[in-house]
Give the backbone structure.
Amino acid sequence: MFDPTVRDGVCRCLRDGARWLVTGWDGGYRDADAVYNVTVPDGFDRTDLAAFRDERLRAVGFEDLGPALLTGVSMAHARCASAGPVTALATAGVSNPAALPMDPQTSESTAEGSAADGPQDWRPGTVNVVVGTERSLANGTLAELLATCVEAKAATLSDLVGVPGTTSDAIAVGCVPEGERAEFAGSATEVGSRARACVRDAIRASFSSRYAEAEPPESVAGAEYGVVTDRKTDVWNPADPD
């Protein structure tokens, strides 16, 4: 079983011999016994993120090597959900919402003024999710599980706060190569269906804890940070190039 342990702002999700697919700065396909979710301090502006990760792990006595997700949310608000061979852990903060209006012409302005063309500065908040299954998944199936979990995250946040995510969300999905084989991980499969439910419930529980005594932003314009993707695109039919 994927085993989460929290120590002083660091959560370790441990499973010996696991294989992971992780988004973000410390991401990619990784063979590692653990994935970490790490709370950063207020005003965090370091750019040596690997060094920061290593410092935090040493400080709390975690010696297992593995990638890390970063967040401004306290690990006091981390919550887990399990269903059969799947376990999910989430921390949910939405101070930096990222909206995707279906009608850009009528969208609200962003907290920063407009959607930027270049990379956004990292901001506190973030919805981080770690999902592990005891099943064995090929690389492509692990990517399918990641897509399934991102979809569940977006659906859950859309229901909670009306946006599909924040500007700095990250996710890690893991499997056990020596486990029972699962060929697919979409929403209609055992692994995918259980993962969707676990992601939903872990995010909802973390969100309820994080905002038990504070209101989440009612809109992107009302948030401390945030962005609205309100740009226009050229839409065309590839079967009719003229």
The radius of gyration is 18 Å. The first helix runs from residue 49 to 60.
